[in-house]
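hi support,

uploading two proteins for the ticket. first:
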Amino acid sequence: MPISKPHSTLGADNKGSCSNLAIYLEKENEELDRIIKKSSSMSEISQLENRKQWFFTALEINISTIDVISAIDNNKRKLGANDAKYFAPTISFSENELSHIAFLATGKKEVTSILELNSSELEQFNNLIREYGRKVMDNYALNFNRQDKGIKTGADLVYFAKIEHFRKYKGTDKEVINGKEISGEYKKGLQSHIHIIVSRKDKTQILKLSPTCNEKQTNRKIGNNEYQVGFDRVKWINSNEKTFDEHFNYKRKELEKFQNQNILKNGSPQDKHEINKKIEIESNNRDDIKKQIRNAHFNVLMTKPNNLKEYQQRMMKFEIQVLPTINKDGFIQENHFFYELSGIDFKASEVNQNLKLHELFSTDSKTTKQVQQTEPSLEDWKINTEKLTSILSSLAFEIAPSLDDELPKRKRAIRK
């Protein structure tokens, strides 16, 4: 689930200026500046400059730190010296969620670092995260239940958000405590997240809005006017999860759902039992789907496809997409099976360790790189008949009755 923390101020005193926090969020740009100073290549310098991140709002991008400080610090009318002037929510993502966003941005299934993305891929990746961040702040605005006072979207707030792509280990991390990692070292994998600075006052500077208010859905009445106050943090997290799944068409596993994780942590024994049962059923269903993919795979092999493209087309008869992942050197790194009926994606190795499609369909390295550039080149991926015979003779499978009429004679031919 996207982890949404509404109360964090990153150690800054939010009763004064936001300058320390805003300047702190320049740390990744400062790291890039240090690298740029050591570079003598104009091309490299340009690429590094393009990797810098700036603040954005509901309507604007590329906002400077100075403008952020000015806008937040001047949006505090009638706030006392000891009142909070701003809050600093953070939006973090799971490894699966970031991998899904990276796939939408690049078409690559195996992105393990933000540094693997070229300029256009990185721009699209940032655009997707930025769009989601804006929707999170729309949910933030709605969660105050002050629509009648004009608080309907993030555009009615004064906030600035910034994407960061790296995290470092801290002394409190269990990996550091256990001696497996060193404090200050960069964490591996995709680590992208969003930092937000949002003013305590709305854009009109009339309303005070606090996400740390302990009241939840409390009704108050002044004269004849009745209104609702409070900020339900659990409701906000659930809204953000739902928004993520709908916006990115993400098929969330039961174990990934915030509501289920909350029950497993704080629920009654009966509730925990029910959630564990749902997780077990989902796991069994996934195992059944893997079996269907395996059977489809071996049924298609029995028809002796001439090349990878033909194999892919025949797998589509079973409503299974076969998606090769090409690494930066132009070679197939992994294959994925996307089962359209369920919307579930599996690595080939998750379905069966012995599939190894990159060995089954062979070609030279030049043709391999062409796969990255053009779809028709898939026709050049000829079947490795020796590998095919070995696979078919060693593995059992179920034959689909709907397969074409040529299957029986082809099966007999292979056994001779």
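and the second one:
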Amino acid sequence: MSSEHPEQPVPSTPQVPHRISVIVPVYQGRSTLPGLVAELAPLTTVGTTPAGRAYVVDELVLVDDCGPDGSDAVVRTLAEEHDWVRAVWLSRNFGQHAATLAGISASGGEWVVTMDEDGQHDPADIALLLDAAMTEQADVVYAKPSNEPPHGAMRNLASRSAKWLVGRMAKGAPAADFNSFRLVLGEVARSVAAYAGPGIYLDVAISWVARRTTTAAVPMREEGGRPSGYDVRRLASHFWRLVLSSGTTPLRLVSVTGAGAVVLAPLVALVLVIGRVSNSWEAPGWTSTMVLLMASTGAILFALGVIAEYVGMAVNMAMGKPLYLPVRDRRDGPLGRDGA
């Protein structure tokens, strides 16, 4: 549900400020991270939300996800310049959701805010998310873009369609509200980070444990003048992980397809026999046979593919494949001894 209720006045007695940890997964942030840190800096002293609630950003956790543009050097510099900026280093590129969970695990705030590195999320809007959480008594608040997200018409349409589909498959998961700019109760976020396994879609995992979820309308900005890190292949993988994380509904659809084929096959056979006996067609039905064969074979292969994906996820977990692996800064280890 969305937060559209008028704000209730906050008591004027001295308040204990809400303490917030901001998590930013970093992949291509060399040009945008300094600006993001500059915007967050004023929030590290106690301020108030539009509804008068006291809050402060205690820490910014930058998770280096081994990107291609030298972001690690910027992360290192920012962590040295600001005592409220912390760096988490991953052993290789694990992806946005895994990097976000790594940062959440390293956080300590009462609330956790996750943001993108590209500048499209305005840190000042954290106050709006907090007001929505308190007004609605929600564990999770997603930013709801008040304008069209700056990704292009086709990508926005594909995103809405994917979320609609998953919303129908994953009961209890508000897929239409999913957004990478989110505020989560700290203990809920860290619990999700503790048990999430390989291949999990972060927002689906949050929906399993969050008692109440809401949204707050905020504007989205342009992506800082750099190309998106998501190409068609990554977007397709992102969508497929969302589908698999939604539960066993795809497997049930496979079962329904198989049951439908079992019911349909005798009917098709009966129609063909009747047509043959009554001489409704002169030539043998080679075309219809091939079409049926191709359709049934395609359905079988698709079903096997879906099952194989689930088996693969289970095997990865059974073999102990980590969701992410934090390490120390390479500059401080043996790889940094040559000054590289």
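thanks. also noticed: The first strand starts at residue 18 and ends at 26.
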